[in-house]
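USER: Note each token:
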Amino acid sequence: MKHLEADYLLVGAGAFGIAFLDELINNTKDITVVVVDKRAKPGGHWNDAYPFVRLHQPAATYGVNSRPLGQGGADLASKSQILAYYELVMSDLLATGRVSYYPLSEYLGEGRFVSLLD
């Protein structure tokens, strides 16, 4: 069994989780985070949404503070735009060296998780 150490364990890489992670990493100097998510890619429920689903609010008011989403104005981003956006955000966060990301994994409680691929 592999032992990981971090300041935070984040379960789920959906919109709220990624926004929280973005704030932690971009507003601190040394905090580390382990992210465990059941889905294969970040974006939470957007991974499961129908292809025609779009934001119901301007894209500029959605997402994380470190990276704008959409073209601005009343732009209502599509599912594919949102998922691509969250992949870019996760890539930015991983590049800091302070985030470890475990997609396709299930949190078991008490700080333990397993890969869904095993």
Observations:
- The CA atoms of residues 16 and 112 lie 22 Å apart.
- The first strand starts at residue 8 and ends at 11.
